[in-house]
Structure formats: C-alpha cells, structure tokens
Amino acid sequence: MSGTAQIGVTGLAVMGRNLARNFARNGFTVAVHNRTTAKTDALVKEFGDEGTFVAARTPEEFVAALERPRRLVIMVKAGDPTDAVIQEFAPLLDEGDIVIDGGNAHFEDTRRREKELRERGIHFVGAGISGGEEGALNGPSIMPGGSAESYESLGPMLEKIAAKAEDGTPCTTHIGPDGAGHFVKMVHNGIEYADMQLIAEAYDLMRAVAGYSPTRIAETFRSWNTGRLDSYLIEITAEVLAHTDAATGRPFVDIVQDRAEQKGTGRWTVQIALDLGVPVSGIAEAVFARSVSGHAALRDASRHLAGPTARKLGEDEAAAFAAQVEQALYASKIVAYTQGFHEIAAGSEQYEWNIDLGKVAAIWRGGCIIRAAFLDRITSAYETRPRMPSLLSDESFAQEIAAAQNDWRTVIATAVTQGVPTPAFAATLAYYDSLRAERLPAALTQGQRDYFGAHTYHRIDRDGAFHTLWGGDKTEAER
Fold first, then answer.
1. Annotated catalytic residue: which of 114, 192, 201, 343?
2. Pairing label, strands 141-144, 123-130
3. Which one of 123, 208, 256, 342 counts the least CB within 10 Å of its CB?
4. CA-to-CA distance for 443 and 360, rounded, in angstroms?
5. Angle at 109 between CA 103 and CA 111, to 5 degrees
6. How far apart are CA 341 and CA 356, in angstroms?
7. Distance between CA 382 and CA 392 in Å, rounded?
8. Does residue 2 carry a pLDDT above 70?
9. Is 192 designated active site?
10. How many helices (H) and strands (E) does the chain have?
C-alpha cells in the first residue's frame, strides 16, 4: 500500500467517522482505521461515494497509506485508550510526522504526550473539537495546540473542514504550544455548562413564576433568538421545549428525568480555575447544579422541607417578568463568558502559551456549541484591547450590564421570595457586584486568619506584612 492519503483517522465511532467524511467531502484522500475492522468496512461501504477513502485493517497498513509527513488523527476515548493508541502507532512513525488527538483530553495529559513524542521527533497536536457529531461532519470549531511547525502542515486542512463564521473566517487557528488547544476546549465546555444552566434557570423561572407552559416558553426563546441572545443553545432550547413526547402526548421536558449528567470537562474547568486562583463562580455553580440534580437521596429531603407559597401572576405581569428574565439571562451569560476568558488568560500566562483571546472568540463564532451572535463583539473587544483585564472592562458590555442590572436583581429577588433555585444567576450577579465594590470584606477575613494562625496581613497605609499579637494588650509587629 503506497502513501497516498493526505490524512488518516483512527477510531471510527460517530465523531471519528463524521470527521473522516468531512475531510473526504473537502477533497482530501483519507485513510481510515478502527480496532474492529467492521466499522472501517461499514464506513467505506456506506459513504464511499462522498470522497476517496483508503481502508486499512492494521496499524501498519494505516501508517503505510499516509503520505509524508504523516498526519494521523486519533478519535478514541480520553485517558488510557488514547495512550494505548499512541503507544501502538508511535513506533511506526518517523521524525516530522504529526499525531493529532481530537478527543476531550485533559490538557495536562496533552502536555505530557507532546513532550514524550517531541523527544522522538514526532509532533503531537491536542485539538479540541466542538460541534458534536453534526459539527464533525459539516464543520466544527477546532482548537489545535502543538508546535507552530505542525500547524503549518496541518492548519490548511483544518481550515478547509472547519465551520466558517459569517464573514467567511475559518473557525480554527493555532491556539498555542503543547496543551493550549485542549485547555481552551476545556474552558469552552465550562462556559457551555454555565450557558446551559442559565438557560435552564430562565426556563424554570418562566414556568414556576410566570406560569408559562413549555410551548409558550419555546415561543419566548424563539423570539429571543432573533435578538441579542441569538445563539445555538437558545435555538435548540426552543426546539426541545416545543417537542411533544409521542408515547404520552405530554411535553417532552416533562417526561425526562431531571438528573443532568456530565463527562468531566466542566469539573476540570473549575478544578483548574481553583489551581490558578481564578474566580469562575458562575461556571462552578452550573457544575454543582448538575451534581445536586444527580443526588436522588439528598433531594428526597424535598418532601420534608418547607418553602414559600407561590404567587400567581396575571398575564401582563407575567409578560413583564419574562422580559426581565431576558435581561438577567443576557447579563449572566456575559459574566460567564467573562469568567471563561479570564481563566484562559490566566492559563496562558501560567504556561507561557501566549494565547490570543480575540482569535479564540473568533473561532467560537461558528461550529461550536457556544456559538453566539455576541461573539463578534467579544472578538472586536479583544482585538482592540488584547490585554484587557476583563471582558467587563469593555465599555459597551459594561453599559449593557449596567442597563440590565435592575431587572437582573429583581429576577433573583423574585426567585428567592418564590423559592425557585437560581444558583448560576445569583453567582454571576455576586461576581459582578464583587468587581464593582470599592472594598470587600476580605479585610475581616485576613484579620481572622491573622488571629488564629498568625498568617499576617497587609496594611493600606504602608508596605510590608504585619501580624498583631492578639489577646491582652494588642501590639503589632512587622513580619
């Protein structure tokens, strides 16, 4: 078998299969391989008319089918399965070849793998891919890390298969060295968790407080999707809420168990934010909300816990409340994105990746799950001020949130008095208020820490670290 394929994909589950088809549809000859050859044969038989595929039954055949430098995409489960595939193929590769991991790997694993393969002269690219199975087939947002040299060879191919923003820009770019791509994909997923939770809270408020039916709420979301909240998640939310279960005739959302699952990237976002000292409270509350939903025994306490009596709203009052929820949702979403971009900036500094936040925002404008109309503005904001400390430092976003804040506060106050849990709404507002506060109660916290642990504190009127000798005659000493 001669090396004629420009790229190869091993791991032909739904994502891998669709990615291979995407490459083929865009004119590339694609070598395909799977541990079980039945999937390889099925792909070629079913989709062989979409382009040129080279079916390989063994790792050796697969590698031999690739032109030099070889470009090999791994689409298997993260963790040990990815390591196993790398260990299987690496001995068959030559210096300058490129291994691309398109799974949801932890970025520290990607950094380790990149270092190990670099020492063997092989490029390793951790590429975050967002858009689900539809995106993999029709154009995802792709976030590749790795060496600049590897992107020179791989980048034009990724740019061909990636989604295109409305201005025609491919939704992919070289993110940065080693694990930068998977780090950005991790934070993307963290923002996704927050976005989904905020939308769910908006739904819950309109149902529990405004008294709207799922169909009515679907209509509301469709209306919102024509304005500043225009986004993929708002669009599909309307579809889900409008769907009727065929078996029961009930709203689909009413027959689904209210236990949200997760695959780990949201947790990683919060864990790494804690390591970096970055406040991502909105994202964290979204992760915890999923955790709470899954604790059936814990939630069994609901039978014994008292709450307020809900007040029924009139039609006009309900419509006015729904408009306030839109304001709260928009403001909270901006804060969630703000927290995510802050974490990317902190990670970039920690690992010396030099990530361009404007380019990250730009490649999220199409293909990915969190694509939204306001990402155009986020892109422009970071292009204008690349080192902007916070997205809320942008005047236009700050003005919009200032205009929304009264309704935002009213919605959360209403949720509290009506007993509707809105952890993500409340956390994002608290974050906003913390940033605008002239002085935080952390001064008292430092005093407490100094009292019980002699941890010292810093004064506002002179330099240095100080400790007070507490008890009896309190004296202060510089440490």
1. 192
2. antiparallel
3. 256
4. 36
5. 105
6. 10
7. 11
8. no
9. yes
10. 20, 10
